[in-house]
User: Which sequence fits this backbone?
């Protein structure tokens, strides 16, 4: 097969991929703090003599969240530029042509790792629990292969090493720094690890891919007092509990069963002692939707429900709603290309349909400008106990998937640029 001859992950490269992923896993960095990771990326690009820019992106929240909502939420965002993003350019030697962007995110999560492995995180409370260590490693491997194949294609490949995916919207900040221009990007692809499929398998489908991801904060204010004299108080815990229950009706009774929506209250904070009724309670949660109309409706109704219930129970409720990442859709033509390449590389029996996710993904900001396709890369190995999903403290991946990801993204880029 042409791919076997053209795209080879040598034993030396495979060993380097595993070693690099383990290093990144042992040294995770939270969003907007990925200085060491960016330094490693830029250093490897220099070794390969690949043209690249550093200091890109930053905190993207001011670009898609209102200043008023950020102030109300008590969020002081950082600069939108001068961050840890890195953009590499590999120019084909067969002349001008189309430009394709390949993206990897670099940040970790505030999670204490529970895996007992030699490459366990060395930073308490910080862990690569979403596979971004693998994404970064894979794209570095792609850089090495595509750089060696410049004589095979026309056009340009842009490699987007992105900070701050886990909340601050680093993709939006890198876009604001002009990464989609000079030359203009025509299409973009990305991989994301998937623990529902084995290493060596992938999943991809056109249409809905990831949901819009918003957050809300409700502060219920009552009247505090002694727990033995509740009649002299307005108990914010009871009021907030009623709000939690009522919020569930926004999906079950106000959203069509044919639409997708999630409303989850993730935190409930109130009180300091068992014999005190506090004067306030705080609820925080997330909303996930695909339809813009459903998104608008739920945003409006959360505030209405909270204030209405609170008022009826002699309390007050203030709601802050922060719009996060938009929904993302896989372009049909790019999906068909990716699926065909994956079938040629892996065999049709290892290529699955990708179900839409209610998770959020800031690659969606790229999708607002150019057609995109995100592919799920299987990383599970049940025999070794590697089955836990992303954002779990025991998440891990079968490193055999690294070479698969490198070959797949390299082949997709070459096919899109017309080299094969």
Assistant:
């Amino acid at each position: 097969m042409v791919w076997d001859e053209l795209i080879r992950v040598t034993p030396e490269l495979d060993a380097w991929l595993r070693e690099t992923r383990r290093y990144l896993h042992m040294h995770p960095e939270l969003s907007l703090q990925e200085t060491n990771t960016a330094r490693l990326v830029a250093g490897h690009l220099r070794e390969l003599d690949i043209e690249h820019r550093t200091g890109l992106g930053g905190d993207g929240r001011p670009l898609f969240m209102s200043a008023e909502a950020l102030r109300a939420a008590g969020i002081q965002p950082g600069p939108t530029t001068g961050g840890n993003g890195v953009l590499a350019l590999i120019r084909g030697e067969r002349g001008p042509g189309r430009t394709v962007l390949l993206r990897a995110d670099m940040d970790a999560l505030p999670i204490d790792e529970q895996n007992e492995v030699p490459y366990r995180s060395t930073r308490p409370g910080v862990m690569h629990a979403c596979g971004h260590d693998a994404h970064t490693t894979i794209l570095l491997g792609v850089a090495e292969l595509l750089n060696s194949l410049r004589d095979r294609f026309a056009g340009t490949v842009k490699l987007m090493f992105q900070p701050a995916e886990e909340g601050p919207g680093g993709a939006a900040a890198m876009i604001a720094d002009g990464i989609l221009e000079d030359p203009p990007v025509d299409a973009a692809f990305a991989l994301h690890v998937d623990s529902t499929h084995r290493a060596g398998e992938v999943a991809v489908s056109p249409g809905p891919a990831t949901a819009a991801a918003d957050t809300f904060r409700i502060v219920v204010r009552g009247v505090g007092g002694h727990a033995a004299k509740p009649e002299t108080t307005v108990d914010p815990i009871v009021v907030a509990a009623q709000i939690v229950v009522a919020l569930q009706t926004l999906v079950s009774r106000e959203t069509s069963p044919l639409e997708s929506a999630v409303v989850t209250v993730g935190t409930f904070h109130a009180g300091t002692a068992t014999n005190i009724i506090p004067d306030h309670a705080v609820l925080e949660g997330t909303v996930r939707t695909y339809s813009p109309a459903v998104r608008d409706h739920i945003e409006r109704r959360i505030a209405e429900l909270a204030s209405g219930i609170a008022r009826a129970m002699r309390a007050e409720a203030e709601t802050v709603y922060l719009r996060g990442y938009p929904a993302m859709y896989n372009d049909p033509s790019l999906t068909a290309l990716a699926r065909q390449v994956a079938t040629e590389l892996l065999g049709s029996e290892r290529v699955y349909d990708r179900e839409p996710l209610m998770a959020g993904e800031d690659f969606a900001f790229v999708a607002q400008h150019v057609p995109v396709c995100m592919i799920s890369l299987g990383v599970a190995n049940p025999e070794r106990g590697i089955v836990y999903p992303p954002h779990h403290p025991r998440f891990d991946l079968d490193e055999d998937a690294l070479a698969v990801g490198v070959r797949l993204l390299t082949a997709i880029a070459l096919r899109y640029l017309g080299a094969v």
Q: What stands out?
A: The two ends are 12 Å apart (CA to CA). The mean pLDDT is 97.
